[in-house]
Amino acid sequence: MHERLEAIISGRVQMVMYRDFAQRKARRLKLIGTVENLSNGTVRVIAEGPRGVLEEYITRLEGGPLLARVEKVIPTWRSVVGGYEGFTIIY
Question: Is residue 39 part of a domain?
Fold first, then answer.
């Protein structure tokens, strides 16, 4: 069964290639959705896929890329909305 993950990632996650990292990991896991920087310095990820794969994705988001310093990943679980054709970065 597919679910929707909405996660807010805080710490040093902007200007360190975090969105690119999140996109590459999501595509490897065959997830669909988006990642974007928010004006408050956090990053928001929306991803849809099987619950187990999304949980693995959260673990990867907690690590982040080399230059990032992830302080917290706050996941929220929702019902699948759909409408995504891949995993994209919102600029």
Answer: yes
Alpha-carbon radius of gyration of the chain:
12
In the chain, how many domains are there? 1
Active-site choice (4, 24, 27, 37)? 37
Range of 19's domain? 2-76
- Catalytic residue (one of 19, 24, 44, 51): 19
Kindly report, residue by residue over 28-87, the tens digit of the pLDDT. 999 999 999 999 999 999 999 999 999 999 999 999 999 999 999 999 999 999 899 999
User: Token match 């909405």: residue?
Assistant: 6
Q: Is 37 a catalytic residue?
A: yes
36 closest CA partner among 50, 47, 48: 47
Supply φ then ψ for residue 56, to 5 degrees. -65, -40
